[in-house]
Amino acid sequence: MAANWKMFKTPAETKTFFASFLPLVKDTTGCEVAICAPFVDLPEAVSAAAGSAVMIGGQNLYWAKEGAFTGEISGPMLKALGCTWVIVGHSERRQYFGETDETVLRRTKAAMEAGLKVIVCVGELLSEREAGETEAVLRKQFEGGIAGLTAAEFAGIVIAYEPVWAIGTGKTATPEMAAEAHRVIRGLAAERFGGAEVRILYGGSVKPDNVKALMAQEEIDGALVGGASLDAASFAQIVNFAS
Ligand code: 13P
Ligand 1 in contact with 153 (CB < 6 A)? Predict the structure, then answer.
């Protein structure tokens, strides 16, 4: 279960979140938990989560290790801070910051090289779903952004299927719709990497009251949660969905 805080929370708010959240998940088993926070919150998040099973991640990285790239953050920098994970290719980065399948691949490789695990995001726009292009879009994103990994690199990623029309809109894909897209992605992975197993998270308006139905689908291995991850109690309910 991964939280994507997007551009929310200050370091002080991060500290408050962890003080409430950690006691609520201290007995959780059978589920990895990661919180992907804004860069400025990462030191606070790493120190607050120390000694717990909760892992911390960034939401983006640049592919060079260091250099004259004003405003950018590298994989080794995230790693040095104590991050375990990083999100790559989120639809908001594709939409507002020019992310392409090619840059997704470059960032993913750089993250792996730095020893980070990567959540690679894919998903179609509403117009693409309505035009019956969901499968073609997933194929294009997979082939351009994931298929270029080596088998060893592929083993270090988790894929997040996030239909763009379901992000922050309160419109969740039905569990069946999500499972169908996950099957498509799994098929693409099998085509390219043989029998390789990969975890696939669903993202898009996941809330405490719909997580159970989504997780009941065999194809859905976890969730990437935006809005509902900002509140400690609500993200803990999602993490503890099974109990
Ligand atoms: P919401 O849960 O707010 O819809 O956001 C989903 C998302 O984009 C997670 O990366």
Answer: no
CATH code of the domain covering residue 203: 3.20.20.70
Count of structural domains, the chain: 1
- Single-letter amino acid, residue 67: G
- Is residue 132 one of the residues assigned to a domain? yes
Interval between CA 142 and ligand 1 midpoint (Å): 20
Spell out, as residue ranges, where the chain has pLDDT lower than 70.
none
Tell me if 78 is assigned to some domain.
yes
What pTM was estimated for this model as a whole?
0.97
pLDDT of residue 171: 83
The DSSP symbol for 94 reads H
The reported pLDDT for the residue numbered 243 is 86
Q: Is 161 within the bounds of a domain?
A: yes
- Token pair recorded at residue 26: 């201290």
C-beta 172 within 6 A of ligand 1: no
CA distances from 22 to 135, 165, 232, 235 (A): 39, 31, 9, 11
pLDDT at residue 198, rounded to an integer: 95
Residue 172: per-residue pLDDT: 83
CA–CA separation, 106 and 69 (whole Å): 15
Going by C-alpha positions, the residue among 112, 196, 101, 106 that lies closest to residue 151 is 196
